Amino acid sequence: MKTNLAHWVLSKLPPELSHDVAKFAMRNFIAAPGTYSTGEGIKLFDAELPNPFGIAAGFDKYAELQDCVRRYGFGWIEEGSFTFGGGKGNKKPRLFRDAESGGLINRMGLNCIPSEVAFERLYESDQSSFAVSIAKTHNPSIVGDAAIRDMINSYKVLKNLGIYTVANTSCPNTKEGKTFEVPEIFRDLNAGLREEGKGRPLVYKFSPNLEIEALEQLVSISSDADGYEIGNTLPTNHPAYGKGGLSGTTIRPLAIKTIADLRDMTEKVILGCGGISTGKHAYEMKMAGADAFLAFNGFVY
Question: pTM of the prediction?
Fold first, then answer.
């Protein structure tokens, strides 16, 4: 009853404020139900986890929850995305509830701590309780080779922490709107990351709506990657809230199709993300080919 009341109160607050309140509660183990285990657990890369459900990147961009998530039933959390320069993000309001889809629309602008600060906060934590997500610094003037170098700089700092490293290739934060999913750019990024030497397993995060030909190109280029994550938020232009990234149920059928296409191309680890709020949703992704699952929107709601 108390939990239901707390959730009702949070749902009436502005979404970013309710997110901050919820994170405060998690840091202080308020209403923590405890660890959830499937019995046999799961092995993700070389980490033994109690279950295959994680919290997706974007939930904690300040490295505050990595030691809390197991008490809330999750196997791990993707910390970040972190950028080399960090940043305050866009002006508020920048997070909106979309009543029609039951999702969230964000134009946060990659507010986060710098990668070097993230390293300091994550270094002494249980390395099996989190993964690390990195993205390009939210500065539209950083383009071309400088954009690739910016991502590589974060990788150098964080590549040896956590279960795996996610390179967020599908976040458009350049003035021309291009992402690292452009094959020519992705090829240079992949080569640059590999030149830095092996760290934790490297996972690439792709959009949930990639055409199969584009996906084939990216998989071919990244033949030395350790895994993939499908997918990110979906670019949208909402009539009331403007441009942003849509998450939630709208993403799920797109992600499931892309996961199925990807599974036909590779036997590597696939992490499914996008619109998961029930066991049935996770099962559908598993049948499509996902090995483990990440939730954000479903956890919030």
Answer: 0.95
Specify whether the backbone of 289 is left (phi greater than 0), alpha (psi in -120 to 50) or beta: left
Give the distance, in angstroms, between the CA of residue 13 and the centroid of all CA atoms in the same chain.
24
Q: Give the full edge-to-edge strand order of the sheet including 242-247.
A: 95-98, 103-106, 242-247, 234-238
pLDDT at position 301 over 80:
no
77-114 per-residue burial string, b: 16 or more CB within 10 A, e: under 16: bbbbbbbbbbbebbeeebbbbbeebebbbbbbebbbbb
- pLDDT tens per residue, range 53-80: 999 999 999 999 999 999 999 999 999 9
Q: What angle do CA 208, 211, 217 make, to 5 degrees?
A: 105
Sequence-separated (6 or more) residues with CB below 8 Å from residue 3: 31
Which string of b and e fits 278-292 if b means at least 16 CB within 10 Å? eeebbebbbebbbbb
Residue 62 to residue 115: CA distance in whole angstroms: 10
Give the H or E element holding residue 252: helix 252-263
